[in-house]
Design a protein that fits this description.
This protein has one domain (4-253): Aldolase class I (TIM Barrel, Alpha-Beta Barrel). The protein is built from 12 helices and 8 strands. It has helices at residues 16-30, 49-56, 82-87, 98-102, 108-120, 133-137, 141-152, 158-161, 182-199, 202-207, 218-225, 242-250, and strands spanning 4-9, 38-43, 62-63, 92-95, 124-129, 164-168, 209-213, 232-235. Strand 2, helix 2 and strand 3 form a beta-alpha-beta unit. Helix 1 (16-30) packs parallel to helix 2 (49-56) and helix 7 (141-152) crosses helix 9 (182-199). It is globular. The structure holds 2-phosphoglycolic acid (PGA). 2-phosphoglycolic acid (PGA) is lined by residues 9, 169, 174-175, 213-216, 234-238.
Amino acid sequence: MRRKFIGGNWKMNKTPDQAKEFVISFVEKIKTIEGNSVDIALFPPFLALNVVKEYSGESRLIVGAQNMHYKDSGAFTGEISPVMLNSVGVNWVILGHSERRHIFRESNELINLKVKAALEHNFHVILCVGETEEERLTSKHYDVIKEQLESDLADIDAKGINNIVVAYEPVWAIGTGKTATPEDAEEMHRYIRRLFEGMYNSDIADKVRIIYGGSVKPANAKSLLVKEDIDGALVGGASLNPQSFFEIVNSVID
Ligand code: PGA
């Protein structure tokens, strides 16, 4: 059984004060969840990491970063390193988000360097992949996902894969209110699992968690999360409000 994973990606939203207010409320809500069947994570902006760590206290909340550089230190104006994140107790990171790929032009080669650095520093990585609308309409979506995964995970061995969660996030579904149908999402998740069988082995393919992202809301979460190969969700907009994020978390709990 793969444990479910629900992550909230706040993107460039919330000041430290707003983050504190959210966490105080959210931690109270998740106290009611029993058992260990779901990982719950928040990915706030860098400036709010400390406050989210502090106010999540001993709760089950995982706190991660939205991006990082692959070097430990150096002349990289505006960047944050794995060492810096570790120093505030953070060892989860989102890499390859489509906004990083498309707005900030991050290449598969750069993402691969970041994945390697993250694993060397014992991070857990949410590796995001996804096709654009045009790529889907021209039936290139499977090739695009294959290319992204093979390049982003180049030289990553089977042991490293234990620390990777794949997030399938079709670009056309992010922040648009358009969600992939549960059937389309499931089909891609199955395809990714089969790819892992070829790239690694069937045991790894079976164990790797593949989560869906793109306009996940309390109203549609359950229909996606009941699918066999959808192991959770990466949530943007709907994670900014403690109640709606909690409702999404709750939709994986029977
Ligand atoms: P969204 O974002 O839920 O606002 O579509 C998802 C994401 O970018 O991870």
